[in-house]
Fold:
Amino acid sequence: MKHTMTSHDMPRRQFVALSAVLGAGALLAGGAGRASAAVQVDSAAGASCCPCPTDPNPPGGGQAACPPSHLQPLCGSPTDTDPLWQDVQYCTQGIVPPSGQRPNCLKTMPNYVVLHGKPETQHNYLLLPSCRITGIECPFLVTTTAANYWHEAWENARRGGDVPVQFPNIGLGINSQTARQFNQLHIHMAGVRASTQRRLQDLETAGRIAPQPSQWGDVQFQALVTGADGTGDRTYRILRLGALTQNLFDLLNLYVVRRFSLDMAGQTLIVVPKMTAAGFAGTFYVLNSDSSLHDGTNTCDHLLVYT
Structure:
């Protein structure tokens, strides 16, 4: 799903500065515990700025923390009219979109909803925050109070999940600000080609995948991966993780964006679970790219299979 740039484009220095306002420690606190933070309210943010679910007894233990009001210029306002945000409001609050078209809410939780992607197939779904978050450029995403949307996407998309992706190999992805069409954060839950899976495993065998987040941007861990859309090879920074318990937005910001003086808004991020003949192998390949790389890309659409 492609996307257009909004007026909320933000230089890297502004992103880092605002992240520091939210708490400098959040940029260094990559560990577990982010999943549990999904249902905690950030007391430092004061009253909730965003229309999170209003059910007095929502499933999952309570409401998720939302970006504080002072980040609305960067993360979006609850009064915005983005179509995907309107779909989220319908699923969480029953507010019918102005178009009158009611989305099919496949799953509604305190901190996210799952919808069909376009075109509608059994391997094209979207996971969206129930809070107003425009996209990857929102500095709230690197804090400890942001929900772990990547973990939730995998738990839904995996075999046996509530909204399983019916495809031999699964991919999760998010587009950059300039490559997206809609401005409510959404993680694509789709398929990837078997050749993509094989390429990543071959790179791992050859020692071409970063074993630690701190090495993510190193040149030896950058590699070409052939796209599923016939557009040729693209260069990605590739990391291996044993679990999705860490905040991937935080890791990307700390070990790639800040390290190389890049813009968070220009990044794409893709997660490909490692699969073998026995099934899920228990690790994940995390791919990042942007236009600063030779043959880089700012969209996840080259690797994901929607149709």
Observations:
- The longest strand covers residues 279-289.
- The chain has one domain: 12-305.
- Residues 1-63 have pLDDT under 50 and may be disordered.
- The helical segments are 12-23, 72-75, 83-93, 149-157, 194-205, 248-257.
